[in-house]
Design goal:
Blueprint: H1 9-17, H2 22-65, H3 71-85, E1 97-104, E2 110-118, H4 123-126, E3 137-145
Antiparallel strand pairs: 1-2, 2-3
Helix pairs in contact: 2-3
């Protein structure tokens, strides 16, 4: 063991009793965790906003398309609705959307609209190495029956 010189003991005790830098040390420990939590909340909010906006957009396009008289007109109405209204959603970039339509069910009485959205260029995926994130390709679908129940 190394003994401390007797004249240094009071200085050492005084140094250990000081609390001048404790706030800075506490901040250095807590700040990275807090900032990571804040970043995760923002990323989740952006993802949630994108998913919700896409689902709303495809659902409204499907509802609008049911007014068409045939398959071609329904597809045209759905695509037009999405093209006109995609810019109203703050988290959606209309240039990254692709739309597909289909008819299914018995007698083709169900009209279905699907949206595929590439979110890989979003700020959320630019910082993605720090957070566990889902696939950047989002697919949302809505279907509606034509006529009767």
């Amino acid at each position: 063991m190394h003994a401390v010189a007797p004249f240094l003991r009071p200085r050492r005790a005084a140094l250990l009793a000081r609390q001048d830098g404790t706030s800075a040390v506490e901040f250095a420990i807590v700040a990275p965790v807090f900032l990571l939590l804040l970043l995760a909340i923002m990323a989740f909010g952006a993802l949630f906003g994108t998913y919700h906006g896409l689902q709303q957009l495809v659902a409204e396009a499907t509802r609008a398309a049911v007014a068409g008289l045939d398959s071609g007109e329904r597809e045209q109405i759905a695509r037009g609705y999405i093209q006109r209204n995609a810019m109203l959603y703050p988290f959606i970039d209309a240039t990254r959307l692709s739309v597909s339509t289909a008819e299914s069910g018995p007698d083709n009485n169900t009209f279905q609209v699907s949206i595929r959205y590439d979110m890989s260029d979003s700020f959320v995926f630019r910082i993605g190495e720090m957070l566990p994130l889902p696939s950047p390709i989002i697919v949302r679908t809505a279907a509606i029956r034509r006529g009767g129940y």
